Structures are given as structure tokens and as C-alpha cells.
Amino acid sequence: xxxxxxxxxxxxxxxxxxxxxxxxxxxxxxxxxxxxxxxxxxxxxxxxxxxxxxxxxxxxxxxxxxxxxxxxxxxxxxxxxxxxxxxxxxxxxxxxxxxxxxxxxxxxxxxxxxxxxxxxxxxxxxxxxxxxxxxxxxxxxxxxxxxxxxxxxxxxxxxxxxxxxxxxxxxxxxxxxxxxxxxxxxxxxxxxxxxxxxxxxxxxxxxxxxxxxxxxxxxxxxxxxxxxxxxxxxxxxxxxxxxxxxxxxxxxxxxxxxxxxxxxxxxxxxxxxxxxxxxxxxxxxxxxxxxxxxxxxxxxxxxxxxxxxxxxxxxxxxxxxxxxxxxxxxxxxxxxxxxxxxxxxxxxxxxxxxxxxxxxxxxxxxxxxxxxxxxxxxxxxxxxxxxxxxxxxxxxxxxxxxxxxxxxxxxxxxxxxxxxxxxxxxxxxxxxxxxxxxxxxxxxxxxxxxxxxxxxxxxxxxxxxxxxxxxxxxxxxxxxxxxxxxxxxxxxxxxxxxxxxxxxxxxxxxxxxxxxxxxxxxxx
Length: 524
Description:
Blueprint (H helix, E strand, L loop, with lengths): L5 E6 L2 E6 L3 H18 L11 E4 L4 E5 L5 E4 L4 H34 L5 H27 L6 E2 L4 H27 L23 H12 L9 H15 L6 E3 L6 H7 L17 E6 L2 H11 L6 E3 L20 E3 L2 H9 L10 E6 L2 H5 L8 E7 L8 H11 E11 L13 H10 L2 E8 L4 E2 L9 H4 L10 E2 L2 E7 L13 H11 L6 H4 L7
Parallel strand pairs: 3-6, 3-11, 7-8, 7-12, 8-11, 12-13
Antiparallel strand pairs: 1-2, 4-5, 9-10, 13-17, 14-17, 15-16
Helix pairs in contact: 2-3, 4-14
């Protein structure tokens, strides 16, 4: 039996389940892993191709140096251990739910004096489910490990902007509180159960990691990534019409497959010893350090592929055939492993340029140091995560240079933290009011599954029959917009965007930027 596997015993149909794993030992092992990581990170082979990772999240004030300067350390990576622990807790609860169903079925069959058909099926389902959930847990523990990351220091211009943000707090707090009390209640994002959640809550759950791995890095998810072709075609078209689309920013990058594909986009006709064959420098970003950890593993995986079982913990409703629950996918595709290996034979100037930043999109990219820095931005499954979509639009406008391209793909399924829920038509008006000229706008007629082709009753699932009696899909919003110009104030510079965002948040009942995103000054 696998280490830590669920032990299952059946006696008179009563299924007893237990988990042979100590959380204390797990935490000690994780602490040892962190210590070992600190020593091994410096020994990374710089001759091999690798993507650079940066941390721009809430700074961690660890200590004060001899000159009284605050020392900011990298993240602790405890979120990784939390994600895998929660997955095991979810797995325990899932096996317990099946166990209760088994006992109910067995007792009912005995009372009605009928064949023990359902209880027999459930016994097999419980055993197989426990085995595959444990397999997934081991794979997640192998993928979600600490990784080399550099903390981004605050620039002088950002500190000047911070003074303006603090002034906004002091000058407007009284009026704002009156406004909130009369019209807008203090904002608090809530989950589906009505509980409070962080409005910038990242996708840190391990089940989300498995879903993203399946969609973005498996061969089976290739049909869902067909729209990457449309995105790259648009980039190539504008690349030849404009001076440069680099660097490309990919916010909400998740595990990074789109950013990887754009960085590895190859312009064959320019390949030579004098010109790089990969014209796009790409910066992925996400506010989840768990997603970033998985991305780092996949960007640098040269060893082997892994099997995961993405359907094993699916809902027990709408299921057609239990055998389909055991289907596996291989991540990443072998072609990805081969592509990464091939990079080691190329000169540095001929290698793809890919980086990944962990941080909040609005507070990181609305800073003065990011103004006009990017030639293009590609948002996929991203814009509907906004609490206030105005902030996203103005941050994108701020970060793009004049003539910059914004390409979008995905639904407008506004998340539970959203204060605004514009229609696609209203959203277009907002984008145009932000200084963009819309070149292409389309709500696709084609239904697209979110995680796997089988989530939609497509030709793919018909090969083996439908997986579920329910389909889950969406029609994506696709658009291309060009930034026409950026209005300037009387002093020739745009007002500090962070300051404006702070005023918006204070006047709409939300948390101050300062309380969350800046290092507090040390006491004298």
C-alpha cells in the first residue's frame, strides 16, 4: 500500500476509514525542505535555460539591519504546505462521504431484502477513490515546492507615490466614512457559503491546481487551448505593423502555459546567429504563490511526465459511468519536456525570455515604475476576477505604452468579490472611455469547456460516451484594443494612479491599499 494511504476495512458492510499520516511529521518534513531549499537555490545551473521568478506581493518585514534599514525577505512558502494539507482534508471528507453512502445502501438493501448491488459498487469505488486521491496528493507534494524567487524592491518613484496615497487617506477619511455610512456599506467579499474572504483571494486550492494542470498542460486539454492560436495570430499581425509588442504582460497567468507558449513563439524567417528566434519577452504574473510554484516546476521540468487523476474528486451527481472517474492525464506533454531540453544547446541571446511575478495586479502594475512599460497585454480568464473592473482597465491603460495592444479571451463570469457586474456591451463602453480603440469585439458562438473536453458533450467525449448528464461550458468574449493616448495633467504627468485607486477604495467601502501592500516603517 502507498505511504500514508487511506486504510480501508469492511466488516458487515461498515466501512471504517483512517488516514495514516501525522500532521506533525508533515510539518517537520516541510520545515526541513525549506531549510534544504535555502542552501540549494544558489546552486541552480545558470548555463541551462530558466525563467526568472519575482515576488511583488505584500512585503515581509523580517528585521532591521545595522543602519536601521528594513530587511525584506522572500515569502515563507507556507501556502504550499497549506494547499497540500487542505487537499488531504478534502480527500478525507470525500472518502467519508462515500463511506456513509455505503452504509446507507447496505442497511437499505438488507431491509428490502434485495441484492447488494449498490453497496458492492460503492465498496470498489471507495477503495479506488482512496488510492487515486493519495496518488494525486503525492504528485502535488512533488510539484508544490519552494523555488528561487527575487523580491522586488520599491523604487523611489513608488515611494513618492506612496506619500500621495497616504495623503489621500488623511484628507478624505472623514468624508468617506460619512459616505459609506449613508450609501455604501463596508465592502466584504463573501464565498458561496456566505463567509468572508479576502477580495484578492488567489486560486491556492490544490483542486484548482489539478484543474489548471489538466486544461493547460495535458494533451487532452489541447482542444481547449486552440484559442492560443488566435491570440498568437493577432500578436504576429500587430508585431509586423508596429515597432514592438515586447514586453508582453500576461496577468492572471496561473500555471503559465499561455505565457510559455508566447515566449516560445518562434519567428522562423528571422532565425539566425544575429537575431533572436523568439521575439517576444513575456512577463507572467499571478497573485498565487501556489500557482507560481507549479509553473516553476513545469517551466524547468526535464526529468519525466506525471499522471494525475483530475476527475476522481468530481461531484457524485450527474455521473454516468464510475469508470470514467478513474481517467488520467499526463502532465506535461512530452513535447514540452523535449522543448525545454532543447534550450540548453542554444546561446543565451537565442533563448526564450520568460519571467514570472507573484503579486497583486492592481497594486503592482499601477505603480509609477510600471507606467508605459509594456508593448502589449494578454488577459485570458482574468478580467472577471476584478472587484472593481475600472481598476483593471486603468491599470492596463497605465502599464501599456501608447499604441500598445490589449488582447482578451474569456468569460465575464464576475467573481463573488465583484462590486460591479457590467454586461459585455457596457464593458466595451468602459474600455473605450479609458482611451482604447476597439479593433475586434466578439462574443463567440462556439461553446468552450473550462477544464476538459468531456465537460462539454463534444465529439471527444462521444468516443466513449458522455461523462456527465450535465454540461459545463461558456462563450468567451474576444477582443483586441489599442491604446490611443494617455491624458496628462497640467504638470505633464499622469496623477499617481495608486493615489486615485486609494480614493476609489476608501469611497466604496474597501480596504486601504496601505494596510495590505506596503511595508510599514520601523519605529524610531
